[in-house]
Amino acid sequence: MVMLSPPRLFFIVWFALWLAGCDSGAGRAVTVEFWAMGQEGEQVKALLPEFERRHPGIRVRVQQIPWSAAHEKLLTAYAGDAMPDAFQLGNTWIPEFIALRAIEPMDQRLRDWPEAALTDYFPGILATNRLAGQTFALPWYVDTRLFFYRDDLLAAAGFPEPPVTWDGWLRAMATLKAQSGEKRYAILLPIDEWQLPVILALQRGATLLRDRDQYGNFRDPRFRDAFTFYLNLFARGLAPPVGNSQMANLYREFASGTFAIYVSGPWNIGEFGRRLPAALQPHWSTAPLPSFSDASLPPPGERLEARAVGVSLAGGASLALSRNSPRREAAWLLLEFLAKPEQQARFYQLTGDLPARQSAWNHPSLTDNRHAQAFREQLQHLRATPPIPEWERIASRIAYYAELAIRQELSADEALAALDRDVDRILEKRRWLLSRGLAP
Amino acid sequence: MTGQERHVARSARVFLAPALLLIAVFFFLPVLAALLLSFTDFDIYALGDLDRLRFVGLRNYLDLLQSPLFWTALGNTFYFVVVGGPLSVAVSLGAALLVNAPLIRFPGFFRAAFFLPVVTTLVAVAVVWRYLYHPHYGLLNYGLGLFGIDPIDWLGDPVWAMPAIILMAVWKNFGFNMIIFIAGLQNIPPSLYEAARIDGASGWRQFRHITLPLLGPTFLFVALMTMIGYFQVFAEPYVMTQGGPANRTLSVVLLMYEEGFRWWNMGYASAAAFVLFVLILAGTTLQLQLRRREPP
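Output (structure tokens, whole complex):
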């Protein structure tokens, strides 16, 4: 090891400090701190050189955060006053960050936008980014749930077209189950998820909470109907009573025909394409969810687009501005850039995330994808979950009681009564805040 | 006190000060803050605006004691401690005796091999064990199948999930206690065994009357540490089952984590932490009392 004499060491330290000083003094550009999750955080970097070319005064530093830690990290950053200037967030988190007063409304800035730009967003998705007449975030990409199904198995059972009503759906599943063996099922619905029972309830017209979202409304007959319909899928053996962790290899099970229908989101378009064997590729399709009643069905022979579609959940991720950031102007330019249809289309090509703006869907890469088309249709028929910070917690209680009811440890009525009781307790703080005028 | 003694005392204080300061700042202060937090309803609303914080007295504790979820978690934790703890100690002792036996070849290799799971990342272990536990393709069910036993859905069946977690935890952790037992065993003078053999004592009686009594202090240490550690079970269910199926593997610490960092109910989570602290303290005291009452 080379020993440095004290004067030489002193010189080196001084020189290093001088260089460091130079560096910070030279950079006149504004650096926008941008947090994005998972693969979005990785892929968005490919879009940024173009942004920095258009805005020479702005540099973007992307911090990539794994999805599993993202929510926690954002909250901790908020608590520690270390928020980024702009960030991605799941759109179900928006009410929470509004309650925290962590994000800045963007209505003032949106006023400069052409009217067409906002109407270009899927309305159901845009609604989840708004609260009390203010817009708090811009949808980045969208996510909803619909059918992934084996069209060969459905056709063999006598159903060449996907079902459009609950009745037709039930008939198709019963036939599938009757024709297949004991270890085979019509549909896979992981019992530890809340999404499908909630979707069915929304299709049935239930409102999940009542009185300005202050109390649970799960004993309402419409929710109860949807819930018993859901439980019956398991009681009749149409769906296996298994949770997510028990499905070690979903794709293999789908390929081998263990189940013919699966309710899932856009990320599985890519996964199914990659993981299913080549021979199976022509035999799987996507379809919008069926609707509860057939009253709105078009006469036979009408175009497929005009048929009844059951609602699904408005999911996805949005981009928001941090309220306390001194670089909101620059960060807004970044958000505007990422919202442009051509960037949305490029982002889809990079990630497979479906664009939030409808004009981006006219890009050939999307019109050519036959599995994405059902999503385009479904995205016109969305319902949002209640826009309150407590929702995720309530959702986890729904999943919990649904699982107990499926396992027949509780009856449907007991489960729903317990659910209402738990939810009323969760919402106690909200009631207190509303009574004092402290809630947003 | 002479001048000399005063001088020594002052130097001692000066030398102790940094350590005490660190303990105060990084241990007592947070614990005190958590205790105060447990009397409030600190949550996401309060994080945004402290006007929305309420002092609720003992309500978090009362809610906790009335919450079926907490009792489920407590029951699961006791299950884990009562079944997993003794099992883990027994397996460690057995492994230590085997590795320490004079007939064994390559004791160093076995020591290292048995210790390996302790230093392996739990997440990696969990991935492998999930395969072992797989209901259709898992090695465990394949082995059972050879004996004509129907496959068990280890992680998905509410009855089997906890035993599955215990099995994995014991396998993962027994190596640590084994090392301590080996150290204890090697401290027993061989002359005692020689004397016993001359008196014609069987192997079992040697174990019963020499090994076990002389391992007493080691035993106490191992039992205490295992109990404390097992009460705080978190990582195993967190990575293997997330508390499922139907909350059958939800532990108190996992509940605390969920309440605190998933739902941001810091007040409630802090209350759970203090209840767990009291329980562990009680368990430890009880064990020490039992040990003291035993004749030496």
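Chain A touches chain B at residues 71-72, 75, 78-79, 96, 99-102, 192, 242-243, 245-246, 248, 389, 392-393, 400, 403-404, 407, 409, 429, 432-433, 438-439 (CB under 8 Å).
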